[in-house]
Amino acid sequence: MTLTGPVEVVGTGLLGTSLALACTAAGLDVLLSDVSAEHVRTASGLGAGRAKQPGDRAQVVVVAVPPDHLGPVIASILTETAGTDTVVTDVGSVKAAPLAVVADHPEAARYVGSHPMAGSERSGPLAGHAALFEGRPWAITPHLGSDDAAVELVEELVRLTGAVPVWLTPDEHDRAVARTSHVPHLMAALVAGRLAEAPEAYLNLSGQGVRDVTRVAAGDPRLYAQIVTGNRDAVLDLLGEVREQLDAAITAIGSGDRGGLEEILTRGNVGTRAIPGKHGGPARPMASVWVTIADEPGQLATLFADAVETRISVEDIRIDHDPSRPVGLVELVVDETHADTLLEALAAKNWVAHR
Amino acid sequence: MTLTGPVEVVGTGLLGTSLALACTAAGLDVLLSDVSAEHVRTASGLGAGRAKQPGDRAQVVVVAVPPDHLGPVIASILTETAGTDTVVTDVGSVKAAPLAVVADHPEAARYVGSHPMAGSERSGPLAGHAALFEGRPWAITPHLGSDDAAVELVEELVRLTGAVPVWLTPDEHDRAVARTSHVPHLMAALVAGRLAEAPEAYLNLSGQGVRDVTRVAAGDPRLYAQIVTGNRDAVLDLLGEVREQLDAAITAIGSGDRGGLEEILTRGNVGTRAIPGKHGGPARPMASVWVTIADEPGQLATLFADAVETRISVEDIRIDHDPSRPVGLVELVVDETHADTLLEALAAKNWVAHR
């Protein structure tokens, strides 16, 4: 089967509208529907497609509704399209719960779940963009009864957006996101919660570390409560492990057992190295070069121009602002073997830099 | 009293050597000592100062030895300099534990603790740099018996390095770093530890969020075990709170109590906003603009040049690499009110960008 459209998008929020825009840009006919007629008008006005009319029939239906509604909406679309070869997928952030609703449906073979690792701090159709999925992992999670042809069509849709397919079963997916997303989010919220209760003066000691650890905790509490409770079992299993390790850390610190504490910290070390590196290769040892700049955008551009001349690839950048002066520290993360060369080259251009 | 030197640095590791370099650069006479004569030779060779000779007398002694040795070393220096007005400070990451060793010393008035919020993934004198403290918060933690003149001299030393003084009592300091550094580090390690045990395929779903949460867990386990156990009481108090909140989260998720979970997540929201913003002002609402670039350093520089033309100040930057293709996503964080303008300007220059 080849993806020729029409593609129907049910739910014209951030993800739905972005997908619709990507499909439209690829020349496909896109049908839009939403419980909010205004959202459909907005998405349509952005060029995401046209409002679905009675009689329109889609080749693929993408369900992009909030997690709570996924199962029932997928089931009702399978029922409406009974007897056709319309493929149904969804972009929800949990996969076992909606599948449980749909699994016994007589038309379930036409359903293949999926989940793009993309988002934004904004929501609604106006936040949509055709490039949202560009370069992002997109999990495709066929169930045991999914038709091969349906799976292939969903893969085609994923590739059309510029996303990178990652193959997992629905259960594997949920356990994976519990580990790489839901539990990290919850723990970030617990750490950030302790800051909410701190005297203001204490927070003046905040550095890049605590900012990094807590950043994701700025996400919408209602949405994340919905996502996390939707992945109840996988999240609870992992939180049980975290609690066990937390107890072990408390015991080790309380009894002055440094070896026990080091063991826990070493496991964390190993974990940071397990996250895939650039382009899927193993993570290489990185080093940071710190540069002091006057806090003006022009400085940053000049710094980059100078860094580029070295032909050393900058893997990551962070900007740390002086809490009380118009000065910023820019951290350039590069391959460890290139850090000294970069440092010397920047110093030669009169930058105040150090490793 | 005015800082005229000599400044003696005891312990020529990363912090000691960096401080010595900053003092030398400011024209002060710097005396170096270390249990390792080789470290002194290395630091001296870098221009950090000269090896301390019998008969040399310092105006300020800075103790920059590992946390375990702080108290005894400070006490023995106070004894050696009995009857002089030599001021003694230290740069250790915990403040109550060394003070407990020193508090009853008859010369304790000449001791004022301090702690610069600076470091590196490297250690030893070769990693030292005069600019290490530039723009960093540096806690100054006088005890009740500290002489005013001694406190002023330590403040002068801190300002000389370009750091920003933050005034706290030793106990406040320890409770502050437990919250902003030690507990975030431990929780990052617990999250990262779960990744160490994950099937490799799961980690392909890792996004920027989990990388941010776990980044600090890459730090040296031996050093952090020493720091954390040195701040035992403050860390245990907070870990008790974290454990209580973790239990509350587990109960809420297990019983489907979304309101309870939302409450925990909302407290995290509040906490992320409590971290001081740029230049100490309140944190302003920020927004991200995502730009897709070919993964070449030249692209980054061109993007910066284009961003600079908009005259919008870029507050933070992150680079997210496609796990399987030579493409990167650059996240430009700007004031929320400027995000659309930046987006339009970049689109006009043919960048594939979205919010």
Which short descriptors sum up this protein?
homodimer; 355 residues; alpha/beta; Rossmann fold; 6-phosphogluconate dehydrogenase C-terminal fold; Alpha-Beta Plaits; 3 domains; five-stranded parallel β-sheet; four-stranded antiparallel β-sheet; 12 strands; 16% strand; globular
Topology, pairings included?
Two copies of one chain form a homodimer.
Chain A: E1 7-10, H1 14-25, E2 30-33, H2 37-45, E3 50-51, E4 60-63, H3 70-80, E5 87-90, H4 96-102, E6 113-116, E7 137-141, H5 148-160, E8 164-167, H6 170-196, H7 208-214, H8 221-230, H9 232-254, H10 258-274, E9 286-294, H11 297-309, E10 316-321, E11 327-335, H12 339-348, E12 352-354
Parallel strand pairs in A: 1-2, 1-4, 2-3, 4-5, 7-8
Antiparallel strand pairs in A: 6-7, 9-11, 9-12, 10-11
Q: How many structural domains are formed by the residues of chain A?
A: 3
Low-confidence stretches of chain A: none
Structural class of chain A: alpha/beta
Tell me the name of the CATH homologous superfamily of the largest domain in chain A: NAD(P)-binding Rossmann-like Domain
Largest sheet of chain A: 5 strands, parallel
State the name of the first-level CATH class of the largest domain in chain A: Alpha Beta
Greatest interface and its participating residue counts: A-B, 143 and 143 residues
Compute the number of strand runs of chain A: 12
Tell me, briefly, the overall form of chain A.
Answer: globular
Strand content of chain A: 15-25%
Which fold name fills CATH's third level, the topology of the largest domain in chain A?
A: Rossmann fold
What is the count of DSSP helices of chain A, taking H or I runs of 4+ residues? 12
Our Rg estimate of chain A from Cα atoms comes to: 24 Å
Known CATH architecture of the largest domain in chain A: 3-Layer(aba) Sandwich
Oligomer, anyone?
Answer: homodimer
- Measured as a percent range, the helix fraction of chain A is 40-55%
Arithmetic mean pLDDT of chain A:
90
InterPro entries (chains A, B): 6-PGluconate_DH-like_C_sf, ACT_dom, NAD(P)-bd_dom_sf, PDH_C, PDH_N, Preph/Arog_dehydrog, Prephen_DH
Keywords (chains A, B): Amino-acid biosynthesis, Aromatic amino acid biosynthesis, NAD, Oxidoreductase, Tyrosine biosynthesis
Family (chains A, B): Belongs to the prephenate/arogenate dehydrogenase family.
GO molecular function, one term (chains A, B): prephenate dehydrogenase (NAD+) activity
